[in-house]
Amino acid sequence: MSMNDIRMALRQGGEAFLDLLFPEDGLCVHCHGESATEQGLCPACAQHLFPSAPPKCERCGRPLKNEGPLCGACQKSLPPFAGAAAPFLYRGLAGEMVREMKYHEKKRYANFLGDAMARCLQALEGPRPDVLVPVPLHRSRMRERGYNQAQWLAARVSLHCGAPVLPNALTRVRETDKQTRLETRAREKNVHDAFAVRKSRAVRGKCVWLIDDVLTTGATARNCARALLAGGAAQVWVLTATTVAWRPETGRLEDWEEA
Ligand SMILES: [Zn+2]
Ligand SMILES: [Zn+2]
């Protein structure tokens, strides 16, 4: 392919650009088997994905069992972000990819998930991002782990949509307990005021898309959005690789630990 073809493809917009990026070697990103589809997975692995399908909550984008417009969590208290989207449920293969990426440094999954997030963003009617802000890790956890998976995802989304990543726009002002062990209310308290905007000039007046691996209770996203809005962002939207569903029968979020 010549440079001209590439330029032409870029001009034609996202889809063509996505086709350029995948498949990188024609192998399945998960099992390394042959016959990967253009999205990077072989048909057998693709069966273990659970797309986040409508009907969805108009605000947080979580799939609902019945028509919305809002899930129980948003009815109880509207989040400060304008909207949220995710390509997959935090179950099956996508859940496994998130954990592998987060705890075992499997960057190839960040590429796969980031591509899916970019497609999701493209299909949305929401405003285009001016900047992408990954949810930061606390400095000590960043030191220990050496990378931030949300930053990997943001970099991949940025490749497609062209909006720059601002990895240092937000900072974690205090270390929070490991979220997975806490109940919803404890989580909300745990992350309250845990984030602050470090460079308000970079987000002032901007349409900011917050990037993370999973939207569970939404406590982290709410607190990041609050900090970004306080820092002058015009609006905040949330794009995650995975999300959990709202279960009306229990009035709770799907148990992400079970996924
Ligand atoms: Zn496969
Ligand atoms: Zn909702």
Low-confidence stretches: 6-23
The CATH class of the largest domain is Alpha Beta
CATH architecture of the largest domain: 3-Layer(aba) Sandwich
Oligomer status: single chain
**Rg calc:** 18 Å
Number of domains: 2
Percent in helix: 25-40%
Calculate the mean pLDDT score and round it.
84
Question: What is the approximate shape?
Answer: globular
CATH topology of the largest domain: Rossmann fold
**Main beta-sheet strand count, sense and barrel state:** 5 strands, parallel
Give me the secondary-structure category: alpha/beta
H/E element sequence:
HHHHEEHHEHHEHEHEHEEE
- How many distinct beta strands? 9
Distance between the termini: 42 Å
What is the count of DSSP helices, taking H or I runs of 4+ residues?
Answer: 11
Which small compounds were modeled alongside the protein?
A: zinc ion
Beta-sheet strand percentage?
Answer: 5-15%
Organism: Luoshenia tenuis
Family: Belongs to the ComF/GntX family.
Domain Double zinc ribbon: 17-75
Protein name: ComF family protein
